[in-house]
Amino acid sequence: MGIAIDSDRLRLEMARRGLDGRQLAELARVTPATISHALNRRRVGLNTVRALARALATTPPLQGADFVAPQGEGAER
């Protein structure tokens, strides 16, 4: 059992910060496989959710990223 991550939102937040999966994994101190699981809608543990939230909260969005990052559901990738 675990927590389902909103993978579309995670992708959006990664894009806004210019992060790929490896970079987010490093910042969150989790494995790249864990990021892959979250992005592929597999459940992850509470500690992982906390680590991802902390990593994203402490990495500011790139200036102007909202103009080019995918927005909302159904956004083309």
Topology:
Blueprint: H1 7-17, H2 21-28, H3 32-39, H4 46-57, H5 65-68
Helix pairs in contact: 2-3, 2-4
Keywords summarizing the entry:
single chain; 77 residues; mainly alpha; 5 helices; 56% helix
Radius of gyration: 12 Å
Strand proportion: under 5%
Shape: globular
What is the rounded distance between the termini? 29 Å
Oligomer: single chain
H and E order: HHHHH
- Note the main sheet: none
Low-confidence stretches: 73-77
Q: What structural category do the secondary elements indicate?
A: mainly alpha
How large is the count of helical segments? 5
What integer is the average pLDDT? 89
* Helicity, as a percent range: 55-70%
**What is the tally of beta strands?**
0
Concise summary:
The chain is 56% helix and 0% strand. By secondary structure, it is mostly helical. Helix 2 (21-28) packs across helix 3 (32-39).
Could you explain the architecture of this structure?
The chain is mostly helical. Helix content is 56%, strand content 0%. Helix 2 crosses helix 4. 21% of the residues are buried.
